[in-house]
């Protein structure tokens, strides 16, 4: 089965927007287009429910129900309990709050593991625990390939309390074997925190099956509003010190959101589930349970992305002036493709913008990963990223523009 691209693109108002006509969007790793169900729910909330939720009057009651709906439906898709899903202002902020909880939870001399493959949001806050006497061990990437070698992990895990790593790097693109890594950590008694921000846009993961204790991703990269979403499994979540108001200490999804939530954006997140359900139903899987629908849509997305990604990787391999970071095989990576060139990333991005191709240049908060691979941070890389709503014709447009610019 293949994705019906006409149906997919009809769910995104951006593709009918005159000001964007003819422009190929390849900066999806920084934020995806928003799907219509999310926009509709957000508009409805601001028009009809923009009051304090959970009071008995009608607008308040309905607003609270829509917020609860978002949490419940996302939990079903992710294969976790409803109260294990929390919302926050961003994944960076959510990670910072979690790190403060671990700062109180751990004792001086305890060890945690971070990687230098991560976006700074899932490594910087954890590294700062060294100020509290926590031992911070670094799981280092191969400087030639950007790969995280599994054979280096067992030694690092000895006596460690926590392992933080990405499902997928936002510059290397390689998909890490999360379930295998989590099983290795669990065998050594270490908790796991997985940054899923760069993977989730390519299909929601079955977090329950992965075995991660914490799984983080950003709704604005999964076709939704600007919210950070975090799954915290109950045993760990209740063991960590409460970071919210003291009277919310027994409510798992409130323990790690010290600030008041954005009611409208939380409610609008149910639109992401609407979109997954619409895709599943259109492709003949509407009668499946939510987790199975999400898995089917995940596989459809990944298959389409891999098919149109491989020609781009093959083309980049023919350009001697470019260095491709990460795997050369589409099945081993997400369609987030970074290249090092003679020009700076910003210069190439500017030149491609004149060819109606929207891309980004820079370091993308992955300074440690790029530095480890020998990239000059002042020059950065050109990053081309897409998702399932991208067409083969747009990839051809990108390749043609690269050919002219280079």
From TrEMBL:
<keyword id="KW-0032">Aminotransferase</keyword>
<dbReference type="Pfam" id="PF00266">
    <property type="entry name" value="Aminotran_5"/>
</dbReference>
<feature type="domain" description="Aminotransferase class V">
    <location>
        <begin position="25"/>
        <end position="398"/>
    </location>
</feature>
<dbReference type="GO" id="GO:0008483">
    <property type="term" value="F:transaminase activity"/>
</dbReference>
<dbReference type="InterPro" id="IPR000192">
    <property type="entry name" value="Aminotrans_V_dom"/>
</dbReference>
<protein>
    <submittedName>
        <fullName>Aminotransferase class V-fold PLP-dependent enzyme</fullName>
    </submittedName>
</protein>
<dbReference type="InterPro" id="IPR015422">
    <property type="entry name" value="PyrdxlP-dep_Trfase_small"/>
</dbReference>
<keyword id="KW-0808">Transferase</keyword>
<dbReference type="InterPro" id="IPR015424">
    <property type="entry name" value="PyrdxlP-dep_Trfase"/>
</dbReference>
<dbReference type="InterPro" id="IPR015421">
    <property type="entry name" value="PyrdxlP-dep_Trfase_major"/>
</dbReference>
<keyword id="KW-0663">Pyridoxal phosphate</keyword>
């Amino acid at each position: 089965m293949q994705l019906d691209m006409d149906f997919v693109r009809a769910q995104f108002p951006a593709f009918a927007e005159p000001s964007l006509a003819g422009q190929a969007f390849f900066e999806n790793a920084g934020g995806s287009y928003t799907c219509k169900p999310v926009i509709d729910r957000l508009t409805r909330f601001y028009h009809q429910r923009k009051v304090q939720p959970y009071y008995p009057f009608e607008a308040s009651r309905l607003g609270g129900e829509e917020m609860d709906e978002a949490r419940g439906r996302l939990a079903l898709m992710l294969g976790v309990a409803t109260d294990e899903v929390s919302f926050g202002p961003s994944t960076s902020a959510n990670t910072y709050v979690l790190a403060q909880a671990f700062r109180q939870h751990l004792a001086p001399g305890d060890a945690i593991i971070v990687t230098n493959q991560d976006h700074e949001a899932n490594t910087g806050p954890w590294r700062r625990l060294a100020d509290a006497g926590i031992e911070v061990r670094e799981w280092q990437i191969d400087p030639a390939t950007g790969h995280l070698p599994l054979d280096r992990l067992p030694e690092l895990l000895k006596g460690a309390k926590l392992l933080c790593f990405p499902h997928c790097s936002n510059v290397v693109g390689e998909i890490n074997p999360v379930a295998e890594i989590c099983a290795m950590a669990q065998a050594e008694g270490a908790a796991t925190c997985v940054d899923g921000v760069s993977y989730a846009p390519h299909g929601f993961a079955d977090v329950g099956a992965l075995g991660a204790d914490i799984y983080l991703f950003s709704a604005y990269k999964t076709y939704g509003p600007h919210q950070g979403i975090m799954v915290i499994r109950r045993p760990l979540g209740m063991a960590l010190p409460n970071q919210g108001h003291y009277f919310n200490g027994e409510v798992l999804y409130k323990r790690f959101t010290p600030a008041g939530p954005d009611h409208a954006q939380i409610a609008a997140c149910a639109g992401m589930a609407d979109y997954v359900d619409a895709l599943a139903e259109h492709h003949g899987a509407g009668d499946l349970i939510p987790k199975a629908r999400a898995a089917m849509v995940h596989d459809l997305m990944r298959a389409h992305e891999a098919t149109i990604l491989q020609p781009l990787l093959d083309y980049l391999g023919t350009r001697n002036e470019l260095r491709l970071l990460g795997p050369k095989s589409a099945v081993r990576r997400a369609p987030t493709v970074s290249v090092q060139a003679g020009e700076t990333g910003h210069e190439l991005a500017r030149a491609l913008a004149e060819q109606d191709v929207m891309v980004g240049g820079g370091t993308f908060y992955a300074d440690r990963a790029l530095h480890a691979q020998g990239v000059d941070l002042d020059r950065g890389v050109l990053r081309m990223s897409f998702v399932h709503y991208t067409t083969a014709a747009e990839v051809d447009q990108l390749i043609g523009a690269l050919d002219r610019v280079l």
